Amino acid sequence: MITSPKLAELVLSYDPNANIDLLRKAYMFSIQSHSLQKRASGSPFFYHPAEVAKLLTEFKLDVSAIITGLLHDVLEDTNVSLDELKEIFGSEIAFLVDGVTKLSRINYTSSKIHQAENFRKFLLATSKDIRVLLVKLMDRLHNIRTLNYISSIEKRKEIALETLEIYAPLAERIGMSLVKDEMEDAAFYNLHPTEYTFINRKLEQMKINDSEFITNTISELSRIFRDAGIDAEINGRGKKAYSIWKKMQKRNVNLEQINDIVAFRVIVKTVQQCYLSLGVIHTNFQIMPGKFKDYISIPKLNNYRSLHTTIIGPFSQRVEIQIRTEEMHRVADDGAAAHWSYKDSNVISDESMPKHYTLIKNLLTIIKNSNSPEDIIDNSKLGMFDNEVFCFTPLGDLIALPHGATVVDFAYEIHTNIGNTCIGGKINGKMVPIKTVLKNGDQVDIITSPYQHPETAWKKFVVTCKAMSCINKFIKSREKIEFQNLGLALTKYLFSKFNLEFSETVLDVKRFSCTTVQRFYYNLAKGNIPLHIVEMYVKNKSTDNITLPQEHVICVMNFTPGIAVHFAECCHPILGDKVISVLIPKKGLVVHVANCDTKELSAYSFVKVKWNNDDEVEVAFNAKLRIVIFNRSESFATVTNIISSSGANITNISVDHRSIDFFDLQVDIIINDPFHLGEIQAALRACGNVRSVHCL
Ligand code: MN
């Protein structure tokens, strides 16, 4: 186990200004807190955090990160509280330790492979600070190194799987290929011991992975480069069992068919020499067609740069050659940490920056590049997932959604039909409306109804492409039929207005340049054929001897809202409100509350509507009239008579003001349409008992 002075020495070796007093304090604090706890191996628990701290120094992390390594298990496994940590070590370290603790509490239990990527992102989003992730990675590295002490095979496999699917890819993503390799191999051994043993034994038999073959190849390659006058450092290593196995699985091939079991690295000074070296290799050896890759011109997402080529090597074995500069090599092995460790890296040319800041910035750049390059990163925060939100299904599946996603987006992410019939959701057990915006970690339970369908209004709050396209698709599929139905309803409405019995056969749709009656309906509802033209046409058909007992009124409940029939946003009619509507070209019918004062009502053709067939109170709307009558005995009766005989209902009359000559009346009435109101006003003005009439 590393001692406190030794740890201090390691940190001082790369950061002479580090707060060593605090480091010592953390060392002692961790020993005392874990006191008698033991690991599965039987050794004192403190060995583990001490080892994690030591691993972190290998990446030359700042002292806060090293201290976090020492303290990373105290919140979870001892009585130490977060406040206590804050008081003793300050808020930065408390924040980091808390972050690692939170990460450790998230369990990756699902074996579904598609979940893994979401889970990794979720961890990154939860990490908040890159150091939290690095401590967690070193914690895991040490745990997997000591996995054999855990007696339960189940538990071992669980940790191994999580390491393989979550932590190794995370290590790879930030460019720590050595950490990734070690994690993968240890996990592979624990998950598939038979395959692990088989591949390693086979490699031994093939003798291409043994040291003699490697040494001989290196000396032969060195000779060729010397002759070519290129100063190159050459090393070679065999592929790890896990990456061989992965290739066998992926390409469905056997071990012998894999080309690059052994890879040799040619490390040179400049990029130019890389390409020169490639020329040297290709001149001296037979190359395998289709195996050449230029990751210098086009780096991998994790910033990996190299030239790769596969050749038949000096001993007639297929080998892969990787050519890179020293700088590229450091990045390949240690990832972003390399930028921090080596001052000659041009990435940290800005000396004014605090060191740890530079490291974090570079790590972030790499993580950022490996995801969506357009994201903007802020300081040490893992901000690149600020544009994503991670939520859980009731079964614990993780769903990744863009920032601002709502219950509807979540529903569509699960299944198109769930989205199409979503009427609401429960977030963490609490009922919420469909447009509720989701937060990280929310557990979302979608509530559906077979009577629900997507509405145009949803487009205003959904953020995912899937939700948007499903809603559009639904609306498009319904659009034609909805407008046709509206056109039919409008035609019936016009027929009934002129007491004509409706019949499709009497419609001469060719007059309106329509080939079919369905086209006619569609064009009428869309406003392509103006309503008043059709009204004139129908009116001309009417004769006095045709009477129709029942008036046809359009029922808005027969239509899908937001397609051909819309509810006005100024007054938001709800079921039971008295409603009226106007037909707006291109848009369709817009339904308003009867007494809505929008100008829209006077600007377009008015159409009578009601909610549904059972709706007894069909079209109607409220109006208020201020009527000044002469103070005569018959005035009052005359006014009420005129109003009621016109077919309007009086719901309230009040006398606001009385004088010797006049009464001021306020009369609330229910009328059929605005024209009706005009008629009443005219009739009132015409009678001798009324002095003035105003609509309020
Ligand atoms: Mn730990």
Helix and strand topology:
Blueprint: H1 4-14, H2 20-34, H3 47-58, H4 63-71, H5 74-77, H6 82-105, H7 113-127, H8 130-145, H9 153-173, H10 177-191, H11 193-206, H12 211-228, E1 233-238, H13 241-251, E2 262-268, H14 271-284, E3 286-287, E4 293-294, E5 307-312, E6 318-325, H15 326-334, H16 337-341, H17 355-369, E7 388-392, E8 398-402, H18 407-414, H19 416-420, E9 422-427, E10 430-432, E11 444-448, H20 465-497, H21 517-526, H22 531-541, E12 554-555, E13 565-567, E14 579-584, E15 588-593, H23 600-603, E16 605-607, E17 609-610, E18 621-630, H24 635-645, E19 649-658, E20 662-671, H25 674-686, E21 690-695
Parallel strand pairs: 2-6, 12-17, 13-15
Antiparallel strand pairs: 1-2, 3-5, 4-5, 5-6, 7-8, 9-10, 9-11, 14-15, 14-16, 18-20, 18-21, 19-20
Helix pairs in contact: 1-2, 2-4, 3-4, 3-8, 4-6, 4-8, 6-8, 7-9, 8-10, 9-10, 10-11, 11-13, 20-21, 20-22
The structure holds manganese (II) ion.
Residues 48, 72-73, 139 line the site of manganese (II) ion (MN).
In short:
The model is unreliable at 336-361 and 364-384 (pLDDT under 50). The chain has 25 helices and 21 strands. It has 696 residues and is an alpha+beta fold.
Estimated structural class: alpha+beta
Task: Supply the number of helical segments.
Answer: 25
- For the record, give the distance between the C-alpha atoms at the N and C termini, rounded to a whole number: 89 Å
| CATH level-3 fold name of the largest domain | Hypothetical protein af1432
The share of residues in helices is 40-55%
Number of domains: 5
Question: CATH first level of the largest domain: which class?
Answer: Mainly Alpha
